[in-house]
């Protein structure tokens, strides 16, 4: 019996454990920290061996195959020891894909992954396809495969998950955009991060499709210098394309496999130029999966968007509060500020991942009346914007940030939480940050 060792007892780890046991592996789960009660209960119920609060090296080194959670870097000494011994270390995505014949739409990119994944899933569901969403969102992909749930999966894929693939090949790959992010995991080498994203297409064949942003410099340069076997399907806001999706005035036009599709952007529930691109990518994926044009149009105008991504919380005393906690890098915040029509009090800050805020200066100059810092170390933000914005206030929690923003904001203004940073200095994760922000807004009433 082959031994499958799983590093990390979270969503992907426990899902993989269930699928591994079903496929006849001797499964062992090991977590450096405490395993959450709900995941522990699943392991106990399914009689899967596990350990927490530390790794037993001898138990791990006896593995034939190791699945590591995306949060563990390749540089971790334990991972390096496994690789040196010649033991294969893969991601949940690689493991689960080996056991499903489902058609896979894989979505990656620095920003827009979640929105595009959810929108794509929304359209396919409306078309009555048997479709699941997984990867970075929802229930674990491996668990869904174990339960033999769906004919199609839309997977949100981070670069960390793609780093752990060997043969994984989605039928349709989508790269929404690429901008510097997580460079701390890639030796601060942007090229390594770009290469990681493009792993999504490395195993695709001539029967598969790569949907990508033709306006994105990093994507364009990679495609000029590297090959993919997949059929290339671009989308653009800047150029008219013979094959692909583009913007003609206020109309999205798609030319794909001799078919034509047109839809007014005024019918999109999602606002902002970046969401027009997300809509183009989702619509083309749906068309390639033979979804009717009418279904695509109807789905686009009924989609509600992702939580913590430009999410309207509510109006309080004629000030609109917007939760964009999922904006954990500068590019995501750029999109958010671009969407602001009213004078904006901008709540920003957290764990800086090597951010360069200079790209934001023109938008901040034009739209931001005050900055509320929400982080332990705000020096970089203050020094970048103190000549552009008159009011900059430092705060140490969501509740304080919201109270300060409410005092500064006037009737008709917006208060935007778009941190451009990771959340780990003051919060568990970006969801925790977003929920605390929303709770604080509701206490203003």
From TrEMBL:
<keyword id="KW-0573">Peptidoglycan synthesis</keyword>
<dbReference type="GO" id="GO:0051301">
    <property type="term" value="P:cell division"/>
</dbReference>
<dbReference type="InterPro" id="IPR005762">
    <property type="entry name" value="MurD"/>
</dbReference>
<keyword id="KW-0132">Cell division</keyword>
<keyword id="KW-0961">Cell wall biogenesis/degradation</keyword>
<feature type="domain" description="Mur ligase central">
    <location>
        <begin position="107"/>
        <end position="286"/>
    </location>
</feature>
<comment type="pathway">
    <text>Cell wall biogenesis; peptidoglycan biosynthesis.</text>
</comment>
<comment type="similarity">
    <text>Belongs to the MurCDEF family.</text>
</comment>
<keyword id="KW-0131">Cell cycle</keyword>
<dbReference type="Pfam" id="PF02875">
    <property type="entry name" value="Mur_ligase_C"/>
</dbReference>
<keyword id="KW-0963">Cytoplasm</keyword>
<dbReference type="InterPro" id="IPR004101">
    <property type="entry name" value="Mur_ligase_C"/>
</dbReference>
<keyword id="KW-0436">Ligase</keyword>
<dbReference type="GO" id="GO:0005524">
    <property type="term" value="F:ATP binding"/>
</dbReference>
<dbReference type="GO" id="GO:0008360">
    <property type="term" value="P:regulation of cell shape"/>
</dbReference>
<dbReference type="GO" id="GO:0009252">
    <property type="term" value="P:peptidoglycan biosynthetic process"/>
</dbReference>
<dbReference type="InterPro" id="IPR036565">
    <property type="entry name" value="Mur-like_cat_sf"/>
</dbReference>
<comment type="function">
    <text>Cell wall formation. Catalyzes the addition of glutamate to the nucleotide precursor UDP-N-acetylmuramoyl-L-alanine (UMA).</text>
</comment>
<dbReference type="Pfam" id="PF08245">
    <property type="entry name" value="Mur_ligase_M"/>
</dbReference>
<dbReference type="Pfam" id="PF21377">
    <property type="entry name" value="MurD_N"/>
</dbReference>
<protein>
    <recommendedName>
        <fullName>UDP-N-acetylmuramoylalanine--D-glutamate ligase</fullName>
        <ecNumber>6.3.2.9</ecNumber>
    </recommendedName>
</protein>
<feature type="domain" description="Mur ligase C-terminal">
    <location>
        <begin position="308"/>
        <end position="421"/>
    </location>
</feature>
<dbReference type="InterPro" id="IPR013221">
    <property type="entry name" value="Mur_ligase_cen"/>
</dbReference>
<dbReference type="GO" id="GO:0008764">
    <property type="term" value="F:UDP-N-acetylmuramoylalanine-D-glutamate ligase activity"/>
</dbReference>
<keyword id="KW-0547">Nucleotide-binding</keyword>
<dbReference type="GO" id="GO:0071555">
    <property type="term" value="P:cell wall organization"/>
</dbReference>
<keyword id="KW-0133">Cell shape</keyword>
<feature type="binding site">
    <location>
        <begin position="109"/>
        <end position="115"/>
    </location>
    <ligand>
        <name>ATP</name>
    </ligand>
</feature>
<keyword id="KW-0067">ATP-binding</keyword>
<dbReference type="InterPro" id="IPR036615">
    <property type="entry name" value="Mur_ligase_C_dom_sf"/>
</dbReference>
<dbReference type="GO" id="GO:0005737">
    <property type="term" value="C:cytoplasm"/>
</dbReference>
């Amino acid at each position: 019996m082959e031994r499958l060792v799983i590093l990390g007892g979270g969503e992907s780890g426990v899902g993989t454990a269930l699928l591994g046991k079903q496929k006849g592996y001797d499964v062992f789960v090991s977590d450096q920290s405490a395993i959450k009660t709900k995941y522990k209960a699943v392991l106990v119920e399914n009689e899967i061996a596990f350990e927490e609060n530390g790794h037993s090296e001898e138990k791990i080194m006896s593995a034939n195959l190791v699945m590591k959670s995306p949060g563990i870097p390749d540089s971790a000494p334990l991972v390096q020891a496994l690789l040196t011994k010649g033991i294969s270390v893969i991601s949940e995505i690689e493991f689960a894909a080996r056991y499903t014949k489902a058609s896979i739409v894989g979505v990656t990119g620095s920003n827009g992954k979640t929105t595009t994944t959810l929108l794509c899933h929304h359209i396919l569901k409306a078309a009555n396809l048997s479709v699941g969403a997984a990867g970075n969102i929802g229930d674990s992909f491996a668990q869904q495969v174990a339960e033999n749930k769906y004919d199609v999966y839309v997977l949100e894929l981070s670069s960390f998950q793609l780093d752990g693939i060997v043969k994984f090949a989605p039928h349709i790959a989508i790269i929404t955009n690429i901008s510097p992010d997580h460079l701390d995991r890639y030796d601060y080498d942007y090229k390594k991060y770009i290469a990681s994203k493009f792993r999504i297409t490395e195993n695709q064949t001539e029967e598969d499709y790569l949907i990508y942003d033709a306006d994105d410099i990093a994507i364009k340069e990679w495609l000029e210098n590297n090959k993919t076997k997949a059929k290339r399907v671009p989308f653009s806001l800047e150029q008219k394309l013979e094959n692909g999706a583009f913007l003609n005035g206020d109309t999205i036009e798609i030319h794909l496999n001799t078919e034509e599709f047109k839809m007014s952007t005024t019918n999109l529930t999602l606002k902002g130029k970046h969401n027009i691109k997300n809509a183009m990518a989702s619509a083309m994926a749906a068309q390639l999966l033979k979804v009717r044009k009418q279904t695509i149009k109807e789905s686009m105008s009924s989609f509600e968007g992702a939580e913590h991504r430009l999410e309207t919380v509510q109006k309080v005393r004629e000030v609109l509060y917007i939760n964009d906690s999922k904006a954990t890098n500068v590019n995501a915040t750029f999109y958010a500020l671009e969407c602001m029509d009213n004078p904006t009090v901008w709540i920003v800050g957290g764990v800086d991942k090597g951010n360069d805020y200079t790209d934001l200066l023109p938008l901040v100059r034009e739209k931001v009346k005050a900055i509320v810092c929400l982080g332990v170390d705000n020096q970089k933000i203050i020094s970048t914007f103190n000549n552009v914005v008159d009011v900059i206030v430092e705060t140490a929690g969501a509740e304080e940030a919201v109270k300060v923003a409410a005092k500064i904001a006037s009737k008709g203004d917006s208060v935007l939480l778009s941190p451009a940073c990771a959340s780990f200095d003051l919060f568990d994760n970006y969801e925790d940050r977003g929920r605390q922000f929303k709770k604080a807004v509701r206490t203003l009433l």
